[in-house]
């Protein structure tokens, strides 16, 4: 079932990303952006209750929501809702950051490749790809791999942005993501609770994103924000994977 869901949504995401997408109005951009952020925010919220005893009054109050988000209850699995919001998020992303179709076509292949790697990881090791990488690769190597992938996409993807700016951004991401991962690895206390791990990954991702905003070299505010988001999410994801 999970494999079928992944294939269906990967096809949907790829088709949407490669399509001629409309430019949304300001109000539509706001609504379309809030939907995926709310959905993923609920996932982060639910993770705060990992390890909390069932007799806790706060957990008992939000237990139905937490159990649904965790995939334990609900007619429609929360993962399906989450995957559907990604489709909305792609339309929002293309509109709010004014990503041209040429650039989207050049990067559309990343989605099916990621899906195939995920399926292969599940079949070979029984682990999702992110867990397999987190358990087999050192933090520095994982940070360098994620940073290098983003750098390659920025540098090599056809874009109206000058190549010198993209080259500088590629260098910045190659440095900031591994440095953030190693800094957290060296300075973070161990062991940590699930709440502390989630808070740390969010804080580290936000800090890395701010550095990327400052050093990235992009001139347009939307390009700077998009770059900061990509770098911050990458750093936070690697840190969360290693912490988990």
Tell me about this structure:
- The protein is globular.
- The mean pLDDT is 89.
- The protein has a domain at 137-244.
- It is mainly alpha-helical and 244 residues long.
- The chain has helices spanning 2-18, 26-47, 57-69, 78-96, 101-107, 110-125, 129-136, 139-156, 163-187, 194-215, 221-243.
- The protein starts with a helix and ends with a helix.
- Helix content is 78%, strand content 0%.
In brief:
With 244 residues, the chain is mainly α. Helices cover 78% and strands 0% of the residues.
Which features characterize this protein?
single chain, 244 residues, mainly alpha
Structural topology:
Elements lengths: L1 H17 L7 H22 L9 H13 L8 H19 L4 H7 L2 H16 L3 H8 L2 H18 L6 H25 L6 H22 L5 H23 L1
Helix pairs in contact: 1-4, 1-6, 2-3, 2-4, 8-9, 8-11, 9-10, 9-11, 10-11
What does the largest sheet look like? none
- Element order: H for helix, E for strand: HHHHHHHHHHH
Q: Work out the helicity level.
A: over 70%
| Overall number of strands | 0
- Separation of termini? 25 Å
Q: Helical element count?
A: 11
Rounded to the nearest angstrom, the radius of gyration is 19 Å
Low-confidence stretches: none
Q: Report the sheet-strand fraction.
A: under 5%
Shape: globular
Structural class: mainly alpha
Mean pLDDT: 89
């Amino acid at each position: 079932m999970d494999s079928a869901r992944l294939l269906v949504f990967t096809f949907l995401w790829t088709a949407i990303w490669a399509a001629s997408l409309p430019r949304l109005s300001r109000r539509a951009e706001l609504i379309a952006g809030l939907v995926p952020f709310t959905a993923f925010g609920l996932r982060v919220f639910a993770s705060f209750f990992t390890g909390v005893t069932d007799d806790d009054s706060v957990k008992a109050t939000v237990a139905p929501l937490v159990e649904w988000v965790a995939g334990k209850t609900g007619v429609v699995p929360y993962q399906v809702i989450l995957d559907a919001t990604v489709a909305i998020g792609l339309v929002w992303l293309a509109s709010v950051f004014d990503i041209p179709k040429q650039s989207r076509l050049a990067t559309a292949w990343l989605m099916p490749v990621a899906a195939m790697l995920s399926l292969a990881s599940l079949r070979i090791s029984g682990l999702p790809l992110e867990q397999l990488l987190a358990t087999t690769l050192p933090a520095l190597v994982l940070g360098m791999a994620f940073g290098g992938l983003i750098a390659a996409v920025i540098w090599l993807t056809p874009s109206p942005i000058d190549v010198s700016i993209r080259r500088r951004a590629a260098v910045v991401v190659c440095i900031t993501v591994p440095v953030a991962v190693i800094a957290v690895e060296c300075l973070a206390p161990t062991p940590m609770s699930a709440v502390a791990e989630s808070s740390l990954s969010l804080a580290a991702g936000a800090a890395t994103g701010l550095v990327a905003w400052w050093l990235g070299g992009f001139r347009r505010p939307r390009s700077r924000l998009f770059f900061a988001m990509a770098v911050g999410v990458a750093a936070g994801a690697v840190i969360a994977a290693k912490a988990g």
